[in-house]
Amino acid sequence: MQLKKPKSIRSALAVATCSMLSGVSHHALAESTPWEIDTALLYYGESDADNSRVTVVEPVIRARKEIADDEFLTFRFVFDSLTGASANGAIPQSTPQTFTSPSGDATYTTSANQTPLDPTFHDSRGAINAEWELPLSRLTKGIFSANFSKEFDYTSMGLAATLSRDFNNRNTTLSGGLSYNADTVSPVGGAPAGLTPMPTTTAIKKTTIGSDQDKNEADLLLGVTQVINRHTLMQLNFTYGMDDGYLTDPYKILSVVDNTGTLVGTDPYLFEKRPDSRARQAIYWKTVHQFSEDVLNVSYRYYWDDWGIASHTLDLKYRAELGRGHYLEPHLRYYSQSKVDFYYYALPDGTSPDYASADYRLADLDATTIGLKYGITRDENSELAIRAERYTQSSGGDAPFPDVNANIIQLNYSLNF
Amino acid sequence: MFRFTITLLLLTLTSLSGCSNFGVQPWERDVLAQKKMQLDPYPVDTYLDEHIYTSREASSGGRGIGGGGCGCN
Amino acid sequence: MKQIVLYPRVLGAILVFVTTVVTAFAAPAPDFELPTKTGSVSLQSLRGQVVYVDFWASWCKPCRKSFPWMNALQVKYGDKGLQIVAVNVDSDLEQVKRFLEKYPADFVVAYDAEGKVASLYQVKGMPSSYLIDKQGNIHAQHIGFREEDKASVESQIKQLLQN
Hints:
Structural class of chain C: alpha/beta
Radius of gyration of chain A: 26 Å
Oligomer: heterotrimer
Structural class of chain A: mainly beta
Shape of chain C: globular
Largest sheet of chain A: 16 strands, antiparallel, barrel
Distance between the termini of chain C: 26 Å
Strand order of the largest sheet of chain C: 1-8-7-4-5-6
Largest interface: A-B, 82 and 49 residues
Number of helices of chain A: 1
């Protein structure tokens, strides 16, 4: 015999639910729930054909615990240590080039016919993130988080809130989120005035616009997750973001050149200048599908902003179960972006644009990642994994900047106790 | 550009309203309940990847939260 | 016709059960017969007892907390006329075995791998529980398992056992 719910029951239930929500109190869990601990260590080592570049070592620890019915607290601590050299934006010349360090108290000289790298890069960063997830009703969930990070020349603080609600017997989930980040950049030696010369000797100091520069970022996220069938799940998200404030990289310069690409003038290097606002959007689609025991994870993101960037990101992961908890997961990622409107490989002498940057990360760029992860899930309470990836970046347009390759190795250990 | 975005979003959402035809019964979520079937089964990996790519490329954002899983409670 | 009889009864039930998410209506619980480890169990044969039917699965995390609690209830009220029937909906019995090794059951466990009984009871979420009175009617149904609901469910059981 089928059960029928008369209409009056449905409205009475709504009343009961609402009064329940107003009167709900938190009950600490009688039996202790486990701590879920995830730890990881990342090594990232980048280089081009001539030189090694940036190296990062980054340990992460994440701890999560259920503190009441479906209510969780999560903490994440990250420490990263960055050493090595990074391209400063200048282009190779047939003779060695000399630049001043950000402080203006030292100089460094780079070899002829090599992309100049600034070797004064070494920085440590610590970041902490706390997240509180709780049910607001049987079908609604809220996630609230705060984050803080600090490095020598950069401080960042942020808050985020997301609400999600389930529909269709929890087959459909709608999510909406907001986040806000307030950052302060305190460049070494002060923030250089955009498009002013970078001194080539320590005798002259760069023109600065102050020491602390603020920037803030606001993001809106709208998403829908849908169970397709017993083996398939899909998600579609739309994000909108607005950045305001000091968005320039204070350590990057442009070479001022003639039509043969040779440095020109007494001040052949200018500090870059980016706009003080940026509006960006992204559409992201992801599918997770299980074949017998193996899982395929495919995602695509289209991103565009008002600086001129339009990018495509395609990410594929296939987890092949090897039996007895062992798995192998190959990973492929294709990335392609179009340049910002104010990108110059080098600034032609005589042009005076409002904004200009020679940072190759804002140029027509293609990047490919190919990787493999090997993991062992002993039981559902512990897991060990190692992954190795090769990340290659190359020019996607006319700018002849060199290919940059990076090796990525990561070790993971997770434990529930 | 803004109008295009809103139109695209509305089109996507209206077409997804047909999604009530897809799905499983609450007792058929065994596969979806597995860790490897979650949208973000390894949040530490995701965090590290995002950190690498946002500092080496010009794009950011996209990923979201919530949905799928065992649908319990 | 049924609606007119139900209305004052529902209002009374809402007043009593206002702190829990519960739908209260007196409809006969659909009969079922399902295999158990030792034979089979039929709801009809349990008429005269208070029956707590719980739909569970090995992949349902809240079920790890509900099992010790249901064991305690079965022990405490078993000889007063309570029978807990935990209906499992897993399709893989290997997983069920592993779950029961970690969280053993002192009550009846029935197997509904095809979900026919779950469908019959219109289960809306996992786990779902149905409290059936001595006359065979569904007194209350509950979606999910929460610590904060344990006390009120237990007092409802006590009340039904006294009738």
